[in-house]
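Hi R.,

Here's the input for the tryptophan complex you asked about:
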Amino acid sequence: MAYSSYFWEDLEMGKIILTGDRPTGRLHVGHYAGSLKRRVELQNSGQFEKIFIMIADAQALTDNADNPEKVRQNVIEVALDYLACGLDPAKSTLFIQSQIAELCELSFYYMNLVTVSRLQRNPTVKTEIQMRNFETSIPVGFFTYPISQAADITAFKATTVPVGEDQLPMIEQTKEIVHKFNSVYAPVLVEPEVLLPDNSACKRLPGIDGKAKMSKSLGNCIYLADSADEVRTKIMSMYTDPLHLQVSDPGHIEGNTVFTYLDAFSKPEHFERYLPEYANLDELKAHYTRGGLGDVKVKKFLNNVMQEELEPIRNRRAEYEKDIPEIYNILKKGSEEARAVAAQTLSEVKSAMKINYFEDAELIKAQSEKYEK
Ligand code: TRP
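And here is the predicted structure with tryptophan in place:
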């Protein structure tokens, strides 16, 4: 008794992270700035009792049903990118969504707590339906993926979900499911809170062409696995200010991709090292705005900044690439660990929903008494 109350107190205090990515391609610097970098900091902060990082292959299949090979190939790419960024399997549980059957069971029960019109109003689902030309025929699995995402989060009793801004509607929907479940059945589920990047440039890093978002299909990404040369070529071709034709012309910072990246990645010590004639980014921006500062100079500086950030990641990735079976091993062990946690939650969910027939001695006794003459 004393032990168990100590145990519950401990759990109540402990903060738990769950987050993840769809394995539809290698991860890029947008993922890094928007989420990965923060995850590694959180992992190393020691403030979290458990950290679950999920490769969301089942969710990736909701809009790639006809392309399972793509999803399969990218599971290992995402795992390598995770490890390269510094996620450490000794501190974080890395696992594959589809291997946790309990998530499907949870989703199935949560479906009773969500209306079709609520899903239709989910802004992320709305945009994605347009992006994928699903308007006329939406796969049911895709339409309901916010519910499955609620299962991902609640299965681990996550208190904290570090994600990019585009995921806010998913967390909102999860909170609603938690409220509904806890009030209809029993207070089993934990309401998560979202953790957004604190630097606003990191929230939505544009592609190198200045388009709103980095995306594989637009070919505008800088990947974490890109070589130093590839990164440099991409930075030198970045979209800047189309009105800044001559070095002497006044330039615009707003919507200028190079400056958005500097907002996201540059630190004062970078100026000391690579551009000592400016004390900080504000001075550089002021000069650009005034006129007299060329794009090439700013791009070269950005290249130095990015190379410094990406080089350790690239080197760590190369190390991990040498032992691919070990990566699968890490994911297998992580999936087993994650499954045990999800199974515990599912069992609590089933008792709350009164579908735990065989574990409920009281029920069997009451039913027997009913029929005793
Ligand atoms: N929807 C997320 C993405 O597109 C991936 C994801 C699935 C996720 N389940 C999650 C993120 C749970 C956070 C929590 O990248």
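One thing worth noting: The chain has a mean pLDDT of 93.

Cheers,
M.
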